[in-house]
Amino acid sequence: MLHIEIPSLEEFKALAQVKGETCVSLYLPTSPLGRSAKVNRTAFKDLAKDALSQLKEAGIGKVEITAFAEQFDRLAGVEPDVQDQDKVRRQQHAEPDPVDSFWHYQANGLAVLATSGATRTLRLANSPKPLAEVADRFHLTPLIRAMTSRHDVYVLALAKESVRLVHAFANLPPERLQVPGLPANAEEATRRPSVHVRAPRGHLQNLEGEKVLLQQYVRKVEQAVYGVLTGRNTALVLAAAEPLASMFRSVNTYPGLADEMIEGNPDQTTDAELEDAAIPILDRLYSRDLAAVIARYDQLKPRLATTDVSYAAHAATAGAIDQLVVDLDAVVPGLVSDLDGSVIYAASDDAETYSVVDEVARRALYTGARVMGARREELPDRAPLTAILRYAFH
Q1: Percent of the chain at pLDDT above 90?
Q2: pLDDT at residue 91 is higher than 50
Q3: What ranges make up the beta strands (E) of the chain?
Q4: Residue 18 and residue 354: Cα distance in Å, rounded?
Q5: Which candidate, 344, 342, 341, places its Cα nearest to that of 318?
Q6: When comparing pLDDT for 87 and 133, which is higher?
Q7: What is the mean pLDDT of the chain?
Q8: In the β-sheet with 119-124, what is the strand arrangement from edge to edge?
Q9: What is the pLDDT of residues 204-262, one digit of tens each?
């Protein structure tokens, strides 16, 4: 089980608002296995030392560097010279050490974002490249993968005998949701002992009668599910056999219903098996979304699409970017003007500069653009970013 923390857009914006003070951004791959806690902690200590060296090279004051060092030591669980009375008390009462618990329960990656006065940690589902960045703002591009990749999906397992809504995750066990108004099965929904109408019963008979009853069942299911999912943008995957699959699609009003489905009667399928079948669909949905953006770039370039970082920086500052795909591992050191977005590139990455790609993504998100993460080889011309514009920008 992975312990992951995905920042919301509002949390991302709050982090992006931190400017003008010394900021340290640390990213490292971690192992979710408890026995790897020591290795995870050691990797963090090494990155923290790198960041402290960068702070010294940048001429940051000794008091501020000490404040960073103390925060990193607390997170790493380094014992102070004076005995920690609180730790002694926990040991006497057999209470778990929160620092030890933190390193024991990790995911595939860790982000540590610190100023001299506070530290924020985020356990990530993805595995970032090791990075220690010192600047006047946080380096946030690696968080975009956590925010924009699909990590979860809803699965509606619909059968005559039963129906359930399961929340499936890429890195966690599935969770069966309680849905108000969701009938237990077709018989409960139609208030009949069976939906199989073998003899005339009022106006319902034979296969036509069964179809009418199943449609009543499906409508009640759709209404209940929509009541739970409305306002969300998480994908919904249908697990069903015909004719229920087609019936549900005909009445569905949830915009996130995926075209691809899990075929067959799911009545005897476990929640874990549904999750195993749904996660590959989730991955393919993201791949198709990314391919669609790249195809749109090919159609709109060069007037309304670009891979030029400087041009994208101008456009992001003006709020002209509609969609942006960035290489999550790219660090292009430099500075971006707050006035017009003009870029001054730097020969090396130090505390006086930051990642230009990161800043473009930050400004694009602020102005409502859809931002996605990708690997360098997935981007046109292997550029660090691909931007699609709302309008021609000069």
Answers
A1: 57
A2: no
A3: 19-29, 109-114, 119-124, 131-137, 152-158, 163-169, 175-176, 236-240, 262-263, 305-306, 321-327, 333-336, 343-345, 354-355, 370-374, 385-389
A4: 13
A5: 341
A6: 133
A7: 86
A8: 119-124, 109-114, 19-29, 131-137
A9: 455 566 788 899 999 999 999 999 998 887 899 999 999 999 999 999 999 999 999 99
| H helix or E strand, kind and range, residue 284 | helix 271-300
Instruction: Return d(Cα 65, Cα 51) in angstroms, integer.
Output: 10
Q: Six-digit token pair at 343?
A: 């870029």
The two structure tokens encoding residue 263: 């075929």
From the number of C-beta atoms within 10 Å of its C-beta (0-12, 13-18, 19+), residue 289 rates as middle
pLDDT band at 170 (very low <50, low <70, confident <90, very high): confident
pLDDT digits (tens, 9 = 90+) for 262-311: 999 999 999 999 999 999 998 898 889 899 999 999 999 999 999 999 99
The residues near 16 (Cβ < 8 Å, ≥ 6 apart) are: 137, 138, 140, 362, 365, 366
pTM: 0.65
Hey, what's the torsion of the CAs at 16, 18, 21, 22, to 10 degrees? -50
| Cα 267 to Cα 161: distance, rounded to the nearest angstrom | 7
| Sheet strands side by side (includes 262-263) | 175-176, 163-169, 152-158, 236-240, 262-263
Give the sheet arrangement for strand 321-327, strand by strand. Answer: 305-306, 385-389, 321-327, 370-374
Two tokens, residue 231: 């306002």
d(CA 22, CA 64): 9
Amino acid (one-letter) located at 121: T
Tokens for 176, please give them.
Answer: 């069966």
For the segment 357-368, the average pLDDT, to the nearest whole number, is 89
Count of beta carbons in the 10 Å neighbourhood of residue 384? 22
What are the structure tokens assigned to 71, written together?
């925060």
Who wins on pLDDT, 210 or 197? Answer: 210
The Cα 391–Cα 394 span in angstroms is 10
